[in-house]
Design goal:
Blueprint: H1 4-21, E1 22-23, H2 26-38, E2 42-47, E3 52-62, E4 67-71, H3 76-83, E5 88-94, E6 97-103, E7 107-111, E8 114-120, E9 125-129, E10 136-137, E11 145-149, E12 155-163, E13 167-172, E14 184-192, E15 196-209, E16 219-226, H4 230-251
Antiparallel strand pairs: 1-9, 2-3, 2-5, 3-4, 4-8, 5-6, 6-9, 7-8, 10-12, 11-12, 11-14, 12-13, 13-16, 14-15, 15-16
């Protein structure tokens, strides 16, 4: 039998944690961006379905113009490719906190007569404490899946071992997911039970036997999310907490 106080406390903790992850008001977003400026955080801007990236920094938040100014890159070729992007994902770290935000448009502008990138002030950003950046195993009774695009353009469905805000592990039961470390798997279809689905890009981090001494059990392929959008990033967080809450309720 559930303990009402424990269950209610778990729900409250989960709600509070979700709020800590997603900052979705202009004042809060601006304050967080100014912290990145103060600490000179290097920001990775990823575009072209996760296949290209550039290092930059947040230089200024111009509230009157609703713009964020970012450092212009040294390669004009890459700069021009970035300026053509229809979606750009930004990621950095500050004192163990992972920060993510995105932009649907990016332009070239000037700040103090120097060229800069300019994006609208994000409507929201993810602010994830490292202690909250943990993997949870997917419940056996409610499996989650990820469809990976094959060479011929078709999709194959793989069960997910575990998931975190930063990535997931795939179960290659077919034993044919032969990808190199660092390779980006574009346009994968991630399905989370009762929480929806979306297209994500995955970067392969490692691969090893799913069960030691049992080659027939397939392989575990660890992947990192690349350029995940704010909305679905928050959905993943909610899913993680729902799994954790269910686990706590069973234990109690």
């Amino acid at each position: 039998m559930e303990n009402p106080k424990t269950t209610e406390s778990s729900r409250q903790d989960s709600a509070e944690n979700q709020e800590n992850y997603l900052v979705d008001n202009k004042v809060g977003v601006t304050a967080k961006l100014k912290q990145l400026i103060k600490h000179h955080c290097m920001v990775t801007a990823t575009f072209n379905n996760g296949n290209q990236s550039i290092s930059t920094q947040v230089l200024d938040v111009i509230k009157d113009l609703d713009l964020v100014a970012l450092d212009y890159g040294p390669s004009e070729t890459v700069n021009l490719q970035l300026l053509k992007a229809t979606r750009v994902f930004f990621k950095t770290e500050l004192d163990g906190i992972t920060v993510q935000f995105d932009a649907d448009s990016i332009t070239k502008a000037k700040l103090h007569d120097d060229p800069v990138f300019a994006i609208p002030i994000p409507a929201s950003l993810l602010w994830i404490q490292r202690r909250e950046f943990f993997r949870v195993p997917i419940p056996i009774g409610a499996p989650a899946y990820c469809e990976v695009k094959q060479i011929d353009g078709s999709y194959r469905k793989y069960k997910i071992f575990d998931i975190s805000a930063g990535g997931l592990s795939l179960h290659d039961g077919y034993k044919d997911l032969d990808y190199e470390e660092g390779q980006v798997l574009s346009a994968c279809k991630l399905e989370l039970p009762d929480h929806g689905h979306d297209t994500v890009n995955l970067k392969v981090q490692n691969s090893f036997p799913a069960e030691k001494g049992k080659p027939g059990a397939g392989r575990r392929v660890g992947c990192e999310f690349v350029g995940i959008g704010m909305s679905f990033g928050a959905t993943i967080q909610r899913y993680i907490h729902s799994v954790e809450l269910a686990r706590r309720q069973i234990e109690n």
